[in-house]
Amino acid sequence: MVLKIRLARFGKRNAPFYNIVVAQARTARNSKPLEVLGTYDPIPKPPPTGEGKAIKDIKLDTSRAKYWLGVGAQPSDPAWRLLSM
């Protein structure tokens, strides 16, 4: 059983929202995952103070991500970029 850490797309047209999930490699992108590790909102939001750069929201359970990487889950390229932050 090959496992992948990848992004599952949700949201509306022109307003994507992604769940960072662990799923079997042969399942469809939006099929039911084994576990949801976090979320990623690629649309920049203004900072709460109103000053500075816009922020892209990433929420990730790092301990579970390390566990899945330890048992052999392979991250996709976009998921790898998010995990390396």
Structural notes for this entry:
- The protein has two helices and five strands; from the N terminus they run ββββαβα.
- It is of the alpha+beta class and 85 residues long.
- Strands 4-3-2-1-5 form a five-stranded mixed beta sheet.
- The longest helix is centred in the C-terminal third of the chain and has 9 residues, at 62-70.
- The chain is globular and about 45 Å long.
Proportion of residues in helical segments: 10-25%
Shape: globular
Sheet with the most strands? 5 strands, mixed
Q: How far apart are the first and last residues' alpha carbons, in Å?
A: 27 Å
Find the structural class using helix and strand composition.
alpha+beta
What is the count of helical runs?
Answer: 2
Quick overview:
19% of the residues lie in helices and 46% in strands.
What characteristics describe this protein?
85 residues, alpha+beta, 5 strands, 5-stranded mixed beta sheet, 19% helix
